[in-house]
Model the fold of this input.
Amino acid sequence: MRAAVDRRLVDLVPGTASGIVAEASAAAVTSPGKRLRAALVFLVAEAAGRDRATLVDVGCVVEIVHAASLVLDDLPCMDDAVLRRGEPTLHRRYGEAVAILAAFSLLATAQSHLAPALAAAGVPPAHREQLSGRLAEVVRTLCRGQAADLALSGRADLEELERIHAEKTGALFELAAELGSIGGGVDTATRAAILAYARNLGLAFQVSDDILDATGSASTLGKDAGRDRDLGRTTFVRVFGLEGATTLRDELLDTAVAALRPLGGRAAYLELLAEHVRTRSA
Ligand code: IPE
Ligand code: IPE
Ligand code: MG
Ligand code: MG
Ligand code: MG
Done:
């Protein structure tokens, strides 16, 4: 599925379109990301009894939004990062102006591809419209969370930290799960279970990202390590220590997996994805 996403991203964000912004946009999405959010779309679809092969474009849309958020996050006015996915950050390659414009361009591209992607997946028109609205809402949420993250200084309580990380990272995980489950033969209770899973998985993912920032190296992560500490960021690790953050990650993942109980054996791959977030080193 990753290969299918990688191939399709080249079509959906063509670097051969005219101009430097198109070239930079393509570079930002085709760089070697883990495609974890697309995987979430596909694995939820599978658990919901849908054909994941029809959802490649939907998975790509989520990855395009994610790539745009990384371009912005890396800018000098935010995390001032030099390395992303093993390559110089977009603004280092193309300059700040082009990087900002590429992020704008990518968000518009994602929004415009969603309805056709849902149509191709057999989602009825009323649902398509609702989900397009959800995508716009998630982008606004992500921006709000990112701003709050940058504004945080020093100590924060668990509730505030969780809210900010749920906004900047969790919202897109939830959307991926929502897109994967829609149109499948799942009842309301099953959909709620899947969304609870995704919410906790997204939060756990950000906690594990904070842990890896503190413990990993640029060569294994493919991005700047130790950046949160250098920038004095209020992360889970800073507030709760490495051990506290690890415990929190594991609790969130346990909660995520427990939420899947109503799905029984259908949730096997989603459980494996949660285990991956627990043990990942990159
Ligand atoms: C990094 O996300 C940003 C966070 C929200 C923590 P990923 O670790 O999924 O980045 P890629 O897509 O694999 O580069
Ligand atoms: C980024 O969080 C969250 C976004 C939604 C962009 P981080 O700043 O921790 O992500 P990395 O560590 O740079 O990938
Ligand atoms: Mg950041
Ligand atoms: Mg960052
Ligand atoms: Mg990080």
Notes: The mean pLDDT is 95.
